[in-house]
Specification:
Number of domains: 1
CATH class: Alpha Beta
CATH superfamily: Aldolase class I
CATH topology: TIM Barrel
Helix content: 40-55%
Largest sheet: 4 strands, parallel
Structural class: alpha/beta
CATH architecture: Alpha-Beta Barrel
Radius of gyration: 16 Å
Strand content: 15-25%
Distance between the termini: 25 Å
Length: 211
């Protein structure tokens, strides 16, 4: 399990991808990879989510694909069955966390309060989603939380773009940065995969400039 967390931390960038049609999944994954990003979180917000994960898992061996917006244990099981190598939920859900840990699947629950963070830590989970980052105080909030919870790292998502990526990615308490700015729904549906690759490459350039 730790290999997946390390891989996410090495990449530092987690594209959050919403797909209305599974046919766009593999071209989107290939575009992200050509830009230097080998992590992909496909959300289950649409009916195409599970099939999209299946296709990327089966056809894009260089991509570590996870499932996002996982709200129930059933959806969690379905996502893993089709090839998701990590699970992301917007909040803390005990049954999801317990199932993932029992089955040695990386789970990144959303935690934005001290109580939620302490609950996650009681399960030995130290990498947490911070969502929506812009609503819950962004970098100042995470910095304040990292004082008592210095062993915790965050994956902030929400309100992050190429304009403020540098600020977020350079913070020592940030494990990786999530967001959809590299692969917007309109670009995916319009087949603008060169643009997606370019935005991914720019994100990688910003990341590398901070290392």
């Amino acid at each position: 399990m730790s290999d997946v967390i390390k891989r996410i931390g090495d990449c530092r960038i987690v594209p959050v991808v919403v797909l209305d049609t599974a046919e766009r999944a593999v071209p989107t994954a290939n575009a992200l990879f050509s830009g230097g990003v080998d992590i992909m979180e496909i959300t289950l917000r649409t009916a195409a989510g599970l099939e999209s994960i299946r296709r990327v898992s089966g056809e894009c061996s260089d991509i570590c694909v996870g499932a996002g917006t996982v709200l129930t244990v059933d959806k969690c099981k379905q996502a893993v069955d089709v090839g998701a190598c990590f699970i992301v939920s917007p909040g803390f859900n005990g049954p999801i966390v317990e199932w993932c840990l029992a089955n040695e699947i990386i789970v990144v629950p959303g935690c934005v309060t001290p109580s939620e963070i302490m609950l996650a830590m009681s399960y030995d989970i130290n990498v947490l989603k911070f969502f929506p980052a812009d609503v819950y105080g962004g970098l100042p909030a995470m910095k304040a939380l990292s004082a008592p919870f210095h062993e915790v790292k965050f994956i902030p998502t929400g309100g992050i773009s190429g304009k403020n990526l540098r600020e977020y990615i350079s913070a020592p308490f940030v494990h990786a940065v999530g967001g959809s700015w590299m692969c917007g729904k309109a670009d995916i549906e319009d087949g603008k995969f060169d643009r997606i690759a370019g935005l991914a490459a720019e994100a990688v350039r910003i990341k590398n400039s901070e290392e």
